[in-house]
Amino acid sequence: MSNCVFCKIVRGEICARKIYEDEDVLAFYDISPVAPVHFMLIPKLHLDSLAHASEAHAGLLAKMLLLAPRLAKQLGLETGFRTVINTGEGGGQEVFHLHIHILGGGSIPPMVKRGN
Ligand code: AMP
């Protein structure tokens, strides 16, 4: 996708602080972190969102999910981390190239605050 910011990072047209790269996936730090460690894991293949994945992408999705804890550990998130996949406008997605946010370090608040 010529105009997709994450495809541009994959092609090297935009700089990113890369963490990991292989033939299928790329991990890089979020430009606007919301936690002491906040990085993105993306497939190199352009998929607009998780809702655009199919059976054909099962291996790729499994690879990403299995890689996430390895990378988190490498970056010092020994006690755990949060994964977030925003999907579609209704899910608050801003960049329409499938990505997993991986966040951790410091204190991570509950995702949902429940009132009394
Ligand atoms: P989402 O709301 O799930 O689509 O998240 C998109 C994320 O991409 C945001 O957290 C942005 O800070 C991040 N982002 C946007 N542009 C870049 C970039 N050039 N390099 C790294 N992260 C980016």
Instruction: Calculate the mean pLDDT score and round it.
Output: 96
Low-confidence stretches: none
Integer tally of domains: 1
Number of strands: 5
Radius of gyration: 14 Å
In the sheet with the most strands, the strands line up as: 1-2-3-5-4
How would you explain this protein's 3D organization?
- The chain is α+β, with helices and mostly antiparallel strands.
- It has a single domain, classed as HIT-like (HIT family, subunit A, 2-Layer Sandwich), CATH 3.30.428.
- The chain is 21% helix and 21% strand.
- It has 2 helices and 5 strands.
- Strand 1 and strand 2 form a beta hairpin.
- The longest helix is centred in the middle third of the chain and has 17 residues.
- The protein binds adenosine monophosphate.
- Adenosine monophosphate binds next to loops.
Structural features:
alpha+beta; HIT family, subunit A; 2 helices; binds adenosine monophosphate; five-stranded antiparallel beta sheet; 5 strands; 21% helix; 116 residues
Quickly describe the structure:
With 116 residues, this protein is of the alpha+beta class. It has two helices and five strands.
Question: SSE layout and pairings?
Answer:
Elements lengths: L4 H7 L6 E4 L3 E5 L7 E7 L14 H17 L7 E3 L15 E5 L12
Antiparallel strand pairs: 1-2, 2-3, 3-5, 4-5
Bound molecules: adenosine monophosphate.
The site of adenosine monophosphate has 12 residues, from loops.
